[in-house]
Structure formats: structure tokens, C-alpha cells
């Protein structure tokens, strides 16, 4: 039975835009829809803490819809299409940060709908979660962390906040995208913190984190087999993958080749999503929270069973040793280290090479952080071309 939210804030918000001219086209406004559709523990638009710089509401888009749209229309989001995940330099076939982000949003939206969460918020968080990644996949982040070690290192999650708070431009009234506090706070929970344990994220943020983990491992298996870094027979020796293979065979009979790889990836995602859903469902049934704030006061709800976590750790151990430490990946990382380190030092010696938007932040950030952040904004292609332009030598990454 659907429970309708009748809190004063929800009803007041719904009434505030009820007389908008758009209402004549039929259908409730978003506050009324949320009151009907969302669970009590979801994050309601009526309860948002708003934006740092006030902007009036829109009657046909919720605050979190607007956040999602601001993210997907941003320059930083578009650049994800030319930022590789793991396999840059190994093959033309690989996932980019953008395709990974879209896949995370799809999986997270599925889980969000099961539990009647705020899907607009889920999508906003999913599309935002990887926006701060530098070029050249994990290799690029590792090298930037080394270059910037003297000023606290580099975190793509932290840099994501820098992008949406400072570097993106959409209005002369403020820097950044002026996203809601809930979206910014959820992104902050992804940053490692020292000291006391922070409160749990909103359930919408928890399922985005779970979806990221689910898709990450499954698609790294897919890409690694496809580009030939590992053989499908090696992967099938892992208990989790073998279990997925058996499920695929039960459903379709014996499958081979590329179809087998795709079916295993499908089952890997489906098995993990089902497990997370079952765990959340059990926790909610035992003691259902009555508000988003109550969710945040409890331990994380979006978890996996101990059995699945053990199998997942074994899969990730395999990926680390056989894929991420594969000679082709290690060689690529060495080339990235040479190129990015040389560029980083070049920007320190020649701050005039920095674009105005970055140069204008040198006094605020310091030269080291400005140089690293500029590199982090680059796509793979732009970084390669910039290296050749500044140093007059072929890039060590090939493709000349």
C-alpha cells in the first residue's frame, strides 16, 4: 500500500505552485507527485536545504531535476566522453568515464525505483559521481596524486566539487553550478575524512555508491576479456563468475564466445543488484525509517551479504593482479607518468601557460594545485595535443 506524504512542508510546497499556468495541462506538480510516489525515507524536494545562492523554484522541474540537468549540460560532463576508465592506450575498445557514468545511472535508477526513492536525486548523483576524473584513467589519477603529494595529493571526488563549485560557469550571479546542498553533501561523503565518523549518506546516495561498485567490477571484466588482457577461462575460475556462468547456462543452455562474455556481465550485474535490493529490503522491513534524516542516523543500508562480498573481493583481487597490473597497463602508466609529470613541472615553471580561468585561482589554490587541477580538466586527446604543443616532442603515449 502506498503511503502518501502529508507532512506540512510537502503540502505547503505543493500548494505554493498549484496555481501556476502550466497546471492547466493536467497532471500534478512535482511536489504532489512526490507526496504520492515517494517513500517516507526518501529525500523530498520540499525538504531541500536549497542552494547557496537563492534561485526561485520552477513549477515543472524539481530542484534535483535541475541539478541533474546542470550536471549533464556542463562542460566537465561532456569531457568525460574522452576520458578513459582503465584501458586507455591498450585498445580502441574500452569504456569511457561517460559510458560508465550512464551505466551507473541506469543501475542506480532501477534500485531507486524499487524503494520509491527520489529518482531525480539518484540521477543527479550518478551523473555527478565521476565528473572529477583526470585523463588517462586510474593511471592519470595516480600520477597527479604523486605530483601533488606536497599539497595534500589529488582526489577525483574532491576535484569534482571544485569543478561544480568553482570552475563551471552557467550564470554571472555565481561561480559553479549552484547545486542543492543535498547533492553537494552527498558528493562530500565520497571523500575520505579523518576524525569522527560522519553520518550516513541519504539512501539515494547509498544506492549510487552501490551501483558504481556493481558496474565497475562487471565492466572491467568485460573490457579485460574483450581486449585480450585475460582469457574467459581464467575469469570462470572465480567463484562469483562461475556462479554467474551457471545461471546463464541454466537460462539459455550452453553459450560461448562473445555472447558468453556478455551473459556473464549481465548476470554479474543482476546478481549484485538483487543482493543489494534484498539487503536493503530486509533492513527496511525490520525497522522502517520514517524520514531521510532517520536514514542518515543509521548505519549504511545499501550493503551486500558477507558471502557475496567475499566473492567480490576475490574478483577484485584477480582484477588487480591480472588486469590493473598487466604489463600493457603498467607500461602505459609509465608513459603517463612521464608525460603528466613533465607537463606538471612545465606549468609550475611557466604559469603563463595556464588558461585565465585557472590562472585566476593561483592566489587561492597555490601554483602546485592550479597546475594539477588544470591537468585534471583535460581530456585524453587534449592532454596529448597540449604535450606536443608545449614540449615539441612526440607524446610517449603513441597515436602520432
UniProtKB/TrEMBL annotation:
<dbReference type="InterPro" id="IPR050135">
    <property type="entry name" value="dGTPase-like"/>
</dbReference>
<dbReference type="Pfam" id="PF01966">
    <property type="entry name" value="HD"/>
</dbReference>
<keyword id="KW-0378">Hydrolase</keyword>
<dbReference type="InterPro" id="IPR003607">
    <property type="entry name" value="HD/PDEase_dom"/>
</dbReference>
<protein>
    <submittedName>
        <fullName>Metal-dependent phosphohydrolase</fullName>
    </submittedName>
</protein>
<dbReference type="GO" id="GO:0006203">
    <property type="term" value="P:dGTP catabolic process"/>
</dbReference>
<dbReference type="Pfam" id="PF13286">
    <property type="entry name" value="HD_assoc"/>
</dbReference>
<dbReference type="InterPro" id="IPR006674">
    <property type="entry name" value="HD_domain"/>
</dbReference>
<dbReference type="InterPro" id="IPR026875">
    <property type="entry name" value="PHydrolase_assoc_dom"/>
</dbReference>
<feature type="domain" description="HD">
    <location>
        <begin position="97"/>
        <end position="217"/>
    </location>
</feature>
<dbReference type="GO" id="GO:0008832">
    <property type="term" value="F:dGTPase activity"/>
</dbReference>
Amino acid at each position: 500500500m502506498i503511503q502518501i506524504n502529508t507532512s506540512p512542508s510537502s503540502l505547503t510546497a505543493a500548494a505554493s505552485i498549484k496555481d501556476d499556468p502550466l497546471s492547466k495541462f493536467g497532471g500534478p506538480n512535482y511536489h504532489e507527485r512526490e507526496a504520492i510516489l515517494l517513500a517516507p525515507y526518501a529525500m523530498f524536494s520540499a525538504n531541500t536545504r536549497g542552494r547557496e545562492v537563492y534561485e526561485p523554484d520552477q513549477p515543472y522541474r524539481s530542484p534535483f531535476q535541475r541539478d541533474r540537468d546542470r550536471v549533464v549540460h556542463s562542460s566537465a560532463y561532456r569531457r568525460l566522453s574522452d576520458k578513459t576508465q582503465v584501458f586507455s592506450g591498450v585498445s580502441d575498445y574500452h569504456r569511457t568515464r561517460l559510458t560508465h557514468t550512464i551505466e551507473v545511472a541506469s543501475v542506480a535508477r532501477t534500485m531507486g525505483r524499487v524503494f520509491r526513492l527520489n529518482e531525480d536525486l539518484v540521477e543527479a548523483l550518478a551523473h555527478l559521481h565521476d565528473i572529477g576524473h583526470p585523463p588517462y584513467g586510474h593511471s592519470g589519477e595516480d600520477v597527479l596524486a604523486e605530483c601533488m603529494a606536497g599539497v595534500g595529493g589529488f582526489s577525483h571526488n574532491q576535484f569534482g566539487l571544485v569543478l561544480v563549485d568553482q570552475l563551471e560557469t552557467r550564470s554571472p550571479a555565481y561561480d559553479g553550478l549552484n547545486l542543492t546542498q543535498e547533492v553537494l553533501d552527498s558528493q562530500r561523503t565520497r571523500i575520505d575524512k579523518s576524525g569522527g565518523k560522519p553520518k550516513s549518506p541519504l539512501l539515494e546516495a547509498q544506492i549510487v555508491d552501490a551501483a558504481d561498485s556493481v558496474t565497475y567490477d562487471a565492466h572491467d571484466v568485460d573490457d579485460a576479456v574483450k581486449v585480450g588482457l585475460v582469457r574467459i577461462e581464467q575469469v570462470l575460475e572465480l567463484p562469483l563468475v562461475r556462479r554467474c556462468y551457471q545461471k546463464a547456462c541454466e537460462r539459455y543452455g550452453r553459450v560461448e564466445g562473445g555472447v558468453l562474455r556478455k551473459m556473464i556481465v549481465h548476470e554479474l550485474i543482476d546478481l549484485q543488484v538483487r543482493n543489494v535490493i534484498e539487503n536493503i529490503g530486509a533492513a527496511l522491513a525490520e525497522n522502517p525509517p520514517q524520514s531521510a534524516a532517520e536514514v542518515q542516523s543509521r548505519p549504511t543500508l545499501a550493503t551486500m551479504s558477507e558471502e557475496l562480498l567475499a566473492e567480490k573481493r576475490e574478483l577484485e583481487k584477480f582484477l588487480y593482479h591480472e588486469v590493473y597490473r598487466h604489463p600493457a597497463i603498467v607500461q602505459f602508466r609509465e608513459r603517463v607518468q612521464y608525460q603528466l609529470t613533465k607537463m606538471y613541472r612545465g606549468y609550475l615553471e611557466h604559469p603563463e601557460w595556464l588558461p585565465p580561468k585557472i590562472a585566476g585561482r593561483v592566489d587561492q589554490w597555490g601554483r602546485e594545485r592550479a597546475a594539477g587541477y588544470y591537468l585534471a580538466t583535460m581530456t585524453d586527446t587534449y592532454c596529448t595535443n597540449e604535450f606536443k604543443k608545449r614540449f615539441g616532442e612526440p607524446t610517449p603515449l603513441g597515436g602520432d
